[in-house]
Amino acid sequence: MMTSPVAGCISNKGGNLVQLTSFSLVQDCRTEKIDNNLKQEITKLTGDLNHETAQYCNLAVALGGSQDTLDLRDELKHIRQRAFEIARQNKQKLIPALRKKNVCEEDAKQLERLYNMFSSCLELLEVELFQTLRLQKMFPLQSGVHFLINVGTSEPFLGCKSQINISEVSLQKESEEINLLERDIADVHDLLFTINQKIAVQPWAAATYNETSQQDEDCKSESSTSGSTASSIDITMVNIDQ
């Protein structure tokens, strides 16, 4: 094959001209926009997961302490199950959107930020679930008298709790709760592994989100004004002394 003198064309052995397209003339094909309703739904689900994870972390601190109760552990169970359901729904919407190849750059960056938040919440939730499992095994509430962690409460006798109404809450119930927690941990782990296998978004490669709220701007403005006022007062005081 030899190059033809005609710009942008080549000729083969048969003498036929083949038109070529310069790469400089090819426009960016990443022009597809993500539906706004879908982005809002993904954003809401990610925020809900963040909220549930934070709430779980706050309550899980009391496990093994004098404030540890059956009601607390039941509430933690409901929170982790809600969080997993939210994560499952978000996965079905976020992952297909991220896997599209022609998404415009702005939407792609937004989806990557949401994915980083999503995966980070799942990773933290998984860590907290393992900690919950360890503490619930170490400090059972339904197996007679047991000692809990001293957290400095005003009632020292709370550090030792005895089983109440043992006939109503059996050891079988506690064993079932442990097994359920282990299954929930496995579900979260599998979900996290699945999304990491399908999406190759590195946290350090995603663009940061530096939107400054109006309240922050007002605080900066007030701080700047206060600083200027203080400076003028200092100068005035110096002039008076002179």
Describe what this molecule looks like in 3D.
- A hairpin with a 5-residue loop joins strand 2 and strand 3.
- This protein starts with a strand and ends with a helix.
- With 242 residues, it is mainly alpha-helical.
- Helices cover 60% and strands 5% of the residues.
- It is elongated, with a radius of gyration of 30 Å.
Distance between the termini: 91 Å
Strand content: under 5%
Overall 3D form: elongated
Q: Order of strands side by side in the largest beta sheet?
A: 1-2-3
List the uncertain runs. Answer: 1-7, 20-27, 152-160, 162-167, 228-242
Helix content: 55-70%
Number of strands: 5
Run of helices and strands: EEEHHHEEHH
Protein structure class: mainly alpha
What is the mean pLDDT?
Answer: 74
Most strands sheet: 3 strands, antiparallel
Q: Which value, in Å, is the CA radius of gyration?
A: 30 Å
Secondary structure tally, helices: 5
Indicate the topology.
Elements: E1 2-3, E2 9-11, E3 17-19, H1 36-60, H2 70-98, H3 105-138, E4 146-147, E5 160-161, H4 171-198, H5 214-241
Helix pairs in contact: 1-2, 1-3, 2-3, 2-4, 3-4
Task: Give the gist of this structure.
This protein is mainly alpha-helical. Helices cover 60% and strands 5% of the residues.
